[in-house]
Structure formats: C-alpha cells, structure tokens
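Handout, tutorial session.
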Amino acid sequence: MPLFAKSDTSSQNPEVRQVEKLVAKEARDDQKALDHTIKDLSSAEKAHNKSIKAADKAQHALDKAVEKEHKAAKALNRAAHNHDASISNEQSAEKTVKIKQQHEARLEQDLEQKRRQLDELQQRKAHNDQVRESKLSQIHAQEAAAADARRASFDASAGQRPSVGGDDAAAAPGVPSRATGATTA
C-alpha cells in the first residue's frame, strides 16, 4: 500500500482512519518540506552561480583596474620623467642665457674699450698730423727764408761784383763753383 495515495482498503475503523489521515498529513508536510528545501537549494545554487559569475566579473574588473593603474603609473612616470627633463632643460637654458648675457656684456665692454682706443688714436694721429704739418710748414718757411736770403745775398753780390772774372758766386747756373764744387741753381 502506497503511503501517499489513498488506499483502497480504507479502514472503517475511525482510529485507523485518523492515523491514516495523520500519516498522510505528515507525508504531505514532509513532501512540502522536501519540495521547499529543494527549491531553497535550487535558489541557493542559482545565487551561488550568480555570485561566482559576479566574483568572476569583479576579478575581471579588478584585473582591468590593475592594468589601467599600471598604464596610469607608467604614464605618470613618463610624465614625471618628461617634467624632470623639462626642468633640467629649463635650468640648462637659463644657465646658457646667463653665460651668453655675460659674454655679450664682456664683448660690449671690449667694444667700448676699442672705440675709446680708436678715438684716442684718431685724436693722437690728428694731433701728430698737425704737429708734422706745423714742422713741415716751419721747415718749408725756413727753407724759403733761406732761399730768399740766398737770393737776396746773391742779388746783392751780383750787383756789386763784376760778372767777368773768376768769381765763384757769379758763376752761371749749372756750373760748379771752384771753391766748393757745388752746382749753382
């Protein structure tokens, strides 16, 4: 006789029927409990599978985040390196500018000194040229005065002495004097 089905041999005895009802009710309650437990187990398995998938998904997201963080760290390191290099280049450029400015200032001082030297030399040359011109003028004036004096002396002596005779002072031009051997002009 099956436990869960109605028996064809239902007893007429009310106590037995009562026990049969009680047993059938217990069987139904046990079946309900078993069905409920199976349903709970199925839900738990589904939840477990979902949690596995969620954990997998979370692990994948973590892996992506770690990879992204590594890329960001690399980019940050590159940027930091580039920044450091830029700072170094800037400092080097500043040093170069200072050196070039100092060199420019030295060259400007040298140029100014050379200009002063040129001015001094030009003034000294102009003064020396003036002194030379003055000396030359003085020499020419003395020579002209001496020539004038000689001419006057010659003219005076030519007017007082006879032209015939052996006087050296009255010698013809281009003829050497007997006394000195010099040629007269």
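The second record follows below. Compare its token runs with those of the first.
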Amino acid sequence: MCAHYQLGRSMFIQTEITPNEDSLKFIPGASVMGEGTAEFLDARSALTSPLAIRLMGIEGVKGVFYGPDFVTVSKDSETAWSVVKPEVYSILMEHFSSGMPLFRSQEERDAAGPQDTRILDTDSETVAMIKELLETRVRPAIMEDGGDIEYRGFDDDGYVKVKLKGSCRGCDSSTVTLKSGIERMLMHYIPEVKGVEQVMDEEEAIALNEFAKLEQRLGKETPKEDHEMAKYMSI
C-alpha cells in the first residue's frame, strides 16, 4: 500500500507502509544514497547529514534510514503519523528540490555506507559465500520493506550473526524474517551454516525484554504469521 504527496508542480513523494507500523518508507523519486545505506539513531550520528539532523529534529522521530532511492523514518509509538508526516514531507521537499548534498563531505558519505559484505582476502570460502548471498539475495528483499541487514560474523558453531536495520529494527516480525527467510536460505545453500542469530543493541534488548514481560503479565500470545518478505527469498 502506498500514497503520493505532490510537491510543487512536478515533484512527488511516494510513501509505502512497512512491516513495522512505526516506520514509513518515503520515496522522493530521486537518488538518495545511490549505492549502499546509512542509518541514524540519534542526533549525534545524524550530524554528518544535514537532511538526517533535520528529520531527527521532528518531535517523535527516533530513527532515519537512507536506502538507494528511499528514506525510512521511524517514530515512537506515542506519536501519530498524522503529526509526523507533514513535517517529513516538507523537509524532504526542501532538501531534494534544493540540490543540497546528502552528507557534509565525501569522506562522511564514504564512511556511512555498509562495508559488512565486502569480501576480504582473509575471508574463508564459507564466509565469502555468506556475504555474497546476503548482498545479492537478502539485502534487496529487505530493502523492499524499507530496511537493511548487516553481517556481524560467523562463529565456530556455524551461526551467522546479523543485525536488522531501518524499518526491520525492533519489528515484531523480525524473528520470523530471520527464520523463515534468511536462515532457511543460507542453510540450504551453505551446509556449514547451522542457523542465524540477530545481534541487538543494548537498548533494543532491554525494550524487547520489557515487552515480553508485559505480554506475560497480560497473558496474551501474539500470533505470528509468515513475513511477506519470505516470498522474495524462496529457495
């Protein structure tokens, strides 16, 4: 599901919902990162990008994610999209119609993109295959939902460590995404892979733990459905 917002006479910004109800994907009809991604979770990290620092200044916004041709904005659950969206539209319109650079310098732009799936001379054949699959099969599918995946390692027990970003960060269906899509595909193509585990920031782990405690107190069980993304990564 998507919506369009007209900016001036010729510029449109398209919005698409994501699996995370607190994240929206904004498509300005112009290149954003071009190649790679970048994520900003606080004002300090956003200082490298004039657009990100302005978006982070909107009340309720807690994260900004740049994709090749989209911007994902994440908000807190207490703030309504009806409050956030008009400001996001205005800032995006001003930025992309002005021709301003996305980052303050080329060095900051180069440092922002993911380097996690770049195959190194020191990588084993297994790690190289994992990185290639993540880059060519998994990352494009996750970007469809306004997010990204970051490779964090492959341990001696055969587990691939990854971190979900953008709209996938903290999404209720992230576990299903890992198990029904990413893990199943990697285990199919690479026998050495025994599973996939998500690496979380300390704040995310605390939030998820508190949410689990709340569910237990309320005696609720949230039904889990297969994530739409799984169809993109079918083996």
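Points raised in discussion: The chain has a mean pLDDT of 81.
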